[in-house]
Design goal:
The complex is a heterodimer.
Chain A: E1 4-17, E2 20-23, E3 28-33, E4 37-41, H1 48-56, E5 64-67, E6 70-73, E7 76-77, H2 83-89, E8 94-97, H3 101-104, H4 111-123, H5 127-140, H6 146-149, H7 159-171, E9 177-181, H8 189-206, E10 209-214, H9 217-223, E11 226-231, E12 234-240, H10 241-246, H11 251-258, H12 298-302, E13 308-311, E14 314-316
Parallel strand pairs in A: 4-10, 4-11, 8-9, 9-10
Antiparallel strand pairs in A: 1-2, 1-3, 1-5, 1-6, 6-7, 11-12, 12-14, 13-14
Helix pairs in contact in A: 4-5, 4-7, 5-7, 7-8
Chain B: H1 2-19, H2 24-29, H3 35-45, H4 51-63, H5 77-112, H6 117-131, H7 134-148, H8 160-165, H9 175-182, H10 185-222, H11 225-232, H12 237-265, H13 269-274, H14 280-289, H15 293-321, H16 323-326
Helix pairs in contact in B: 1-15, 5-6, 5-10, 5-12, 5-14, 5-15, 6-10, 7-10, 9-10, 10-12, 12-15, 14-15
Classes of the chains: A alpha/beta, B mainly alpha.
The structure holds adenosine-5'-diphosphate and magnesium ion.
């Protein structure tokens, strides 16, 4: 465990809104080793982005409030840092890629200038050196004619090109951790595959640890070492990717996997998970999945299941998880 | 753009001023003028010809820089405009400059400290500026600072006595600049003292709008993805607020400021009347009261030119600030 990079323990993030308290995260715990890629999967609205933003200290408060036993990163508890110390870590040691490259880049500055600015801040180099390094990074992420592209504005570039710019900018300071929040969701399918391959290659080369947020299990299978499945603000199951695909234990994971015909054999119809994602203002009591779970019985309705180890590095939060092998 | 606007404005104004049932000739002639005198004046002024001919003559003259003779001041209208416009330009520009220098940072500060004490104070201040009638504030300041404490002159642009002793060399027509360049300190001082109250009144009024405007557009920008992204990149707040966000928030702010500036250049009537500031508004009100048609026409044409020009400048600024417009 000497190679541990990030340990989040009992993370509760709530939003105090007019409609009520949104209990977006209800005790998230996760660990990440150096150079490891962790997939964070779950339906829209289950709290994936909030988890990422909580780690980076980017939850707006008010209305948000982040509480955790610890968010330990590379020797420091991020929760104990002040604003300035946290800022020094963001972008330099922990970088984050957002879903929409088109809106995540500033529309009024050329992309090269924006990238150079980040390099300048974190490496304390001159404007010119920053620009040089930015063009180098553009070259590295496979942008053709990087000199010319660096002078373009985001609206003049395609979505895929903008996401390449984004990746170049984020990896420019060689961060230990990259949080990628659905980096390919907004892109065309063919471009998605290219960007995915690019990211996979680069993080291997730089030994960057990645939290890869997605709702696409196919993507997870392709690039993640481990995977954590989220449901309504809770991590319901986590394990090595292979193990999870071959031997899912949590009823929610099982139904998710059944939604991908290619990966599951002997299936003759696509099961739809009945019900909808619950409101996080009034989440179900006990296990948050129980109203949609076919196995639920009385303890599930009152008691919150805690993570149980079913085998090495495989955790399930469920009273009725599948025990059979 | 300029040509059709001016043509339209001139046609409309010309016919409005000529169909009102009042005769400038009678005004010039006075109450005791005989019918004969009136007719003579009318034919001198060309008022006896058909309207479309009159318009044709007018336009031909305007094109050669002749706006006719003011009935009221008996000066060529163009000369009057040259005399009065710099006063308006000086007052409006100074007020606008001060407003921008204070208003934009104040709006940014307010937005970045949303819902804290400083923000509430700023919003209260701008609300009071919007709610308070301009003339009332003007009169209040006048009463307090000029009449009661005798700190500042009640009105006018400069002390005539001072200009008698220290004549101003007219170069730009802007007293502050002309006196400053020529080192005419007594006149400079007098000009400064005179411009304080009208500027303050105007700034207070403008500041209210502009601060609200820059605050709200700043708040809008701060919600954008690219601001959160810049935060995730660990950029300093100063860079994020004053470079990344402000540059975007300026786009709508500049538009409003520019249009307001254009409007005010056409004569900030109220302020000029309150402080007897000899500007375009002051001149226009005088001309209207005396049915001075050539003067009214001249003012209208000038206002149209100014407005179109300011609009053009705003468009250019817009394109400079927003690269998405440049190629669009
Ligand atoms: N600023 C906010 N204010 C109130 N509620 C929020 C805010 N941000 C996120 N939430 C809520 O937190 C929950 C999780 O959202 P999110 O993490 O974005 O989901 P996703 O898994 O799709 O990324 C949602 O119910 C969302 O409404
Ligand atoms: Mg999300």
């Amino acid at each position: 465990m000497g190679d541990l990079l990030l340990r989040v323990k009992d993370l509760y993030t709530h939003f105090y809104t007019f409609e009520g308290t949104v209990k977006a995260l209800d005790g998230i715990s996760l660990e990440l080793k150096r150079a490891e890629t962790l997939g964070l999967v779950g339906e829209t609205g289950c709290g994936k982005s909030v988890t990422a933003l909580s780690i980076l200290g980017l939850i707006p408060c008010p209305p948000g409030k982040v509480e955790a036993a610890e968010i330990w990163f590379d020797g420091v508890d991020l929760l104990k840092l002040d604003k300035e110390e946290m800022r020094a870590i963001r972008g330099k040691k922990i970088a984050m890629i957002f879903q929409e490259p088109a809106t995540a880049l500033n529309p009024v500055f050329p992309v090269g200038e924006q990238t150079a600015e980040i390099i300048r801040i974190h490496k304390q180099v001159s404007k010119r050196e920053g620009m040089q390094k930015a063009v180098e990074m553009f070259h590295l992420v496979g942008i053709p004619d990087p000199d010319r592209v660096s002078k373009k504005y985001p609206h003049e570039l395609s979505g895929g090109m903008n996401q390449r710019v984004m990746i170049a900018a984020k990896l420019s300071s060689n961060p230990a951790l990259l949080v990628a929040d659905e980096p390919t969701t907004a892109l065309d399918v063919t471009v998605q595959a290219q960007i995915l391959q690019l990211m996979k290659g680069l993080v291997q080369r730089f030994r960057t640890a990645v939290i890869f947020i997605t709702h696409d299990l196919g993507v997870v299978a392709e690039i993640c070492d481990r995977v954590a499945v989220m449901y309504a603000g809770v991590i319901v199951e986590s394990s090595k990717t292979r193990v999870l695909f071959e031997n899912p234990r949590h009823p929610y994971t099982r139904s998710l996997l059944q939604a991908i015909p290619k990966l599951v054999e002997r299936i003759d119809r696509l099961p739809v998970i009945s019900g909808t994602v619950p409101s996080l203002i009034n989440p179900p009591s006990g296990c948050r999945f129980h109203p949609r779970c076919s196995l639920a019985d009385s303890p599930c309705k009152v008691e919150k299941p805690s993570p149980t180890s079913v085998e090495a590095e495989h955790w399930v939060s469920c009273f009725r998880y599948d025990q059979g092998d | 753009m300029l040509v059709p606007v001016l043509l339209g404005v001139s046609v409309v104004m010309f016919f409005i001023t000529h169909v009102v049932p009042s005769s400038p000739a009678r005004l010039i002639g006075g109450p005791h003028a005989t019918e004969e005198t009136i007719r003579q004046i009318e034919s001198e002024l060309g008022l006896d010809r058909p309207l479309h001919l009159q318009y044709g003559i007018y336009i031909r003259k305007v094109l050669s820089g002749d706006f006719g003779i003011s009935i009221h001041s008996r000066n060529p209208v163009i000369e009057d405009l040259k005399n009065y416009f710099p006063a308006t330009f000086e007052l409006t520009s100074l007020a606008m400059l001060i407003t921008l220098i204070i208003g934009i940072p104040l709006g940014v500060f307010s937005a970045t400290h949303k819902d804290r004490a400083a923000d509430h104070a700023t919003r209260l201040f701008s609300l009071s500026g919007v709610a308070m009638p301009l003339f009332w504030l003007g009169l209040l300041l006048q009463l307090l600072l000029s009449s009661y404490f005798k700190l500042l002159p009640v009105g006018g642009r400069i002390d005539p006595l001072v200009t008698l002793l220290h004549p101003i060399r007219h170069m730009s027509g802007l007293y502050l600049i002309d006196t400053l360049i020529t080192g005419n300190w007594p006149a400079f001082k007098s000009a400064v003292l005179h411009i304080i109250l009208p500027t303050t009144t105007l700034v207070y009024f403008l500041l209210a709008t502009l601060t609200r405007m820059s605050r709200s557009s700043m708040l809008e920008i701060l919600r954008q993805d690219y601001i959160r992204n810049a935060m995730a990149d660990g950029l300093p707040e100063k860079t994020i607020f004053y470079r990344y966000a402000l540059r975007n928030a300026l786009i709508p702010t500049v538009t409003i400021a520019g249009l307001t500036y254009g409007l005010l250049l056409g004569g900030d009537f109220l302020v000029e009347i309150i402080y007897s500031w000899p500007g375009l508004g002051f001149y226009a009100v005088g001309s209207m009261a005396s049915l001075d048609f050539p003067a009214i026409m001249g003012v209208t044409m000038l206002v149209a030119v100014i407005f179109v020009t300011v609009n053009l400048i705003v468009d250019i600024l817009y394109a400079v600030l927003d690269p998405r417009i440049r190629y669009g």
